[in-house]
Specification:
The chain is an alpha+beta fold and 243 residues long. The protein is built from 4 helices and 11 strands, in the order H-E-H-H-H-E-E-E-E-E-E-E-E-E-E. The chain has one domain.
Length: 243
């Protein structure tokens, strides 16, 4: 009897650290659940998001002279020949591309977002993260942190997700060639809300900072809306296109 008692105590002692460790992971501590399939609802900037703007149409972007000069050189045929069809699908622009996203946990400390438009994958790393060596990528390196009640959170349980992305390959803020440089950084806030009719929404506030190609303080701010889907219906991954 004593043996069983001490054996039980020993087992509990071994299990407790693991239980507390799991409870303390970013996945377990999430104040909002972002997982599942979401579809973009284009309620703003329709003519710049649903259609490829004409060359030189940079309205609503806080441009500077150098950005306009480079943007006026946009040549989609040249981009396609160079294998750079994904220049407008990088982290500063991908969430503005109409389509669906699929959010899952890659592991307990990494949130993954896949896009059907351009077939891009974003990884949001919580905690200490060492950026990998090698060439810059379209999605760069993203670090994430939960902001709970008392912060920006307006969504479920008063929490939101903050993501900061750096180390990106230079690309376009829009398909018509307005550029962002490798010095750009992206700060995003993800908020989940629920409407009275039961619809669940994901609001993404994106702040692109680029001292090279953005004027008026070098900051471009947008808000993007997604609504929750019941399943993968409509999920249709397609490669990047230049137009």
């Amino acid at each position: 009897m004593k043996y069983r008692f001490f054996l039980t105590i020993a087992v509990i002692a071994l299990m407790l650290p693991q239980a507390f460790a799991q409870r303390g992971t970013p996945r377990a501590a999430a104040p909002i659940d972002m997982t599942g399939y979401w579809v973009a609802v284009v309620t703003e900037d329709w003519r710049w998001r649903m259609l490829t703007p004409e060359k030189g149409d940079f309205a609503s972007i806080p441009t500077n002279a150098e950005g306009v000069r480079v943007g006026q050189q946009w040549d989609p045929a040249k981009d396609e020949a160079a294998g750079e069809q994904c220049k407008s699908y990088g982290a500063p622009a991908i969430m503005r591309v109409p389509g669906r996203i699929h959010v899952t946990w890659d592991n307990d400390t990494t949130l993954k977002i896949e896009t059907d438009a351009g077939q891009q994958t974003r990884l949001f790393h919580f905690g200490e993260f060492q950026s990998p060596a090698g060439p810059k990528t379209w999605q760069g390196n993203s670090t994430a942190a939960w902001e709970v009640s008392g912060g920006r959170g307006r969504g479920q349980a008063g929490g939101s997700l903050k993501v900061v992305t750096t180390g990106m390959r230079a690309g376009y803020l829009r398909k018509n060639g307005y550029p962002y440089s490798e010095k750009a950084t992206v700060t995003e806030f993800y908020d989940r809300t629920m409407e009275a009719n039961g619809d669940t929404w994901l609001l993404i506030t994106t702040v692109v900072n680029d001292p090279t190609y953005l004027g008026q303080g070098g900051e471009f701010v947008t808000s993007t809306h997604f609504t929750k889907q019941a399943d993968a219906a409509g999920w249709n991954p397609q490669p990047c296109t230049v137009k």
